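User: Please write out a complete single-protein record containing the residue sequence and its fold in token form, without commentary.

AI:
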Amino acid sequence: MELDVQEPRQTFFDFVWKHGTKFSAGIFWLALLGGYVWYMRSTGLSAQEAALQLRDFLAESAWGPLLYVILYTLRPLIFFPATIMTAMSGYLYGPLLGTGYALIGGNLSGTLAYFVGRFFGGDLFSEDDAEASGFVARYASNLRRNGFEAVLVMRLIYLPYDLVNYLCGFVRVPWLQYATGTLLGVLPGALTFTLLGSVFSADSTASQRWLLGGFSLGMLLLGLGFSRWLKARKSAD
């Protein structure tokens, strides 16, 4: 009986051809992350010190706001904390402009992370698995069915920003529901951390610092309270 020795090779090359783009993206991602870790270790900078270094660069550049938005957008690729970037916007640009820049950068970075998660997630949790057994499959299906409210609540209770972005992309939450939930859900957080960053601005007086700090705390409590109300309403239904 003659064996077909070509079939395994064809299957292998078909697999590489189909997933080669994902492999390339994964290698690039790992190289970028490795370079970031190497830089942090070689310079001895902590995440906070790196943020201060970045702050000085942005403050001295005429292209500061544009560079800030670009860097905020790329931030999830190296897992730089979103809260530090948001607070930095308030410190650099004040509460009004800072909030605007932080919202633009935050939503763009969320979009990037969402599509990265969607790209790597592939069809692992597709809509055809809605009736699949298992906790993970059921959770993914539920997240897709209630995408807007789920994303909104996760934003309001301050779950790790990038975790939510990648998770929603990975389980393929509908884009419009994800984007809308993010746009509304990040407002209290953006105001909270932008105002907090403004407290430490050299241009702020003592009375302004107290006022900004109070508003920051108020936005934090407002967001948490609204998330509890949403969950209570959902439970009642």
